Amino acid sequence: MRLIRTSLVLEDIRPRIRELVTAIYRKIPTGVGSEGAIADLPLGELDRLLLSGAEWSVQRGFGSSQDLQFIEESGRLEGADPALVSQRAKERGRSQVGTLGSGNHFLEIDFVEEVFDSEAAEAMGLTEKSVCLMIHSGSRGLGYQVCHDHLTVMNVAMRKYGFHLPDRQLACAPIESPEGQQYIGAMYAAANYAWANRQVMTHLMEEAFLETLNISPRSLGYRLVYDVCHNIAKMETHVMAGKSRRLLVHRKGATRAFPAGHPQVPAAYRRVGQPVLIPGDMGTASYVLLGTEQAMAQTFGSSCHGAGRRKSRKQAMKEAGKRDLFEEMEKQGVVVMSTGRRTIAEEMPEAYKNIDEVIDVVHQAGISRKVARLRPIGCVKG
Predict the structure, then answer these.
(1) Which pTM does this prediction carry?
(2) Which ranges in the chain belong to alpha helices (H)?
(3) Which residues are identified as catalytic?
(4) What is the chain's pLDDT, residue by residue, as a tens digit (382 residues)?
């Protein structure tokens, strides 16, 4: 999940919002199997990307080296091993860098509707009515294939290690086992791919704004606020039973929420805490929050990743019927573009829980603290 801020305000772009959404849609291929944002990568070059993550993209002109300090793990996990990524996964990934997946993945234009913590918002460069962009996409077909490949291996390994679980999706193996280490090496490579992918899309969205509005980079004031993972396992230090321990923290549908003063929080935010990005649905709002000490004590420095579904995709499709959801969204003030109607139906606002209620629970529980509420005005879905 990635948040970018600009120097623009709502009034600067409201009359041009359809042009901007169209420009982003044309720049960034979207949907199942989308490809072609940049030239297909030779396998050797793809291996370099899997090792270097967002740095690979920056070295090739997609963004600036300054971006890396505002990405979780600086956009690169040590220990990634491209040799553990299958040939099938690599074939799927070599043409998909800089593309948006399907389902709940999106590219969004927002404005800051309300600020709750002025000090933190100022540190992030967020002011009321300022225009922001959000990117929700990951490791595309490569990451899906890595998961599929190692799920198969782990299901066999569970019998070997005597594990009995009610769902094959919970398949696992001991961390230090050959199967566990192989998965970690491949997963880290997929995480690096996701960071490289979002970095390329960030640059392409900037180009869309510059070309459509015919303004200078200085006038646009385009800058990465933060990029945080929401489906990853990695080694971190936490206190358990009064002792500091190295643990493999697996966040699935969750996001990191480290507090002020933590050494892994970027220097620019260390006084206030790590930005936590929680999207809602395309018709209501998303939130920027801060990590807290309470999160470190209760949730291994984690917060929820999004509003969460209240209706299955199948149920949403059924209820959507013949409704013109594109027109409905536009009447709500949101211009939406997508490769097809199906995704919009599956992702319609009613399919998700009330984001304001979810955020209030997180805030009141003390595991993340509200900074700003963002309202969408333009959205591209896969």
Answers:
(1) 0.96
(2) 10-13, 17-27, 43-52, 54-59, 87-93, 118-124, 140-161, 178-213, 217-220, 293-298, 313-320, 325-331, 341-346, 355-365
(3) 305
(4) 999 999 999 999 999 999 999 999 999 999 888 999 999 999 999 999 999 999 999 999 999 999 999 999 999 999 999 999 999 999 999 999 999 988 889 999 999 999 999 999 999 999 999 999 999 999 999 999 999 999 999 999 999 999 999 988 889 999 999 999 999 999 999 999 999 999 999 999 999 999 999 999 999 999 999 999 989 999 999 999 999 999 999 999 899 999 999 999 999 999 999 999 999 998 899 999 999 999 999 999 999 999 999 999 999 999 999 899 999 999 999 999 998 889 999 999 999 999 999 999 999 999 999 999 999 999 999 8
Burial of 176 (0-12, 13-18, 19+ CB in 10 A): exposed
Q: 331 in the Ramachandran plot: left (φ > 0), alpha (ψ -120 to 50) or beta?
A: alpha
Q: Look up residue 167 and give its two tokens.
A: 């769902």
The dihedral region occupied by 264, where left means phi > 0, alpha psi between -120 and 50, and beta the remainder, is: alpha
Amino acid at 313: R
Residue 284 one-letter amino acid? T
Rounded to 5°, the CA angle 146-154-160 comes to 160
Q: How far apart are CA 315 and CA 351, in angstroms?
A: 8
Domains of the chain: 2-381 (3.90.1860.10)
Phi/psi of residue 79, nearest 5 degrees = 100, 0
Alpha helices in 30-111 (DSSP H): 43-52, 54-59, 87-93
- Alpha helix segments (H runs only) across 137-243: 140-161, 178-213, 217-220
DSSP assignment of 232-278? EEEEEEEEETTEEEEEEEEEESEEE-PPTT-TTS-GGGTTT--EEEE
- Rounded to whole angstroms, the Cα distance separating 217 from 176 reads 48
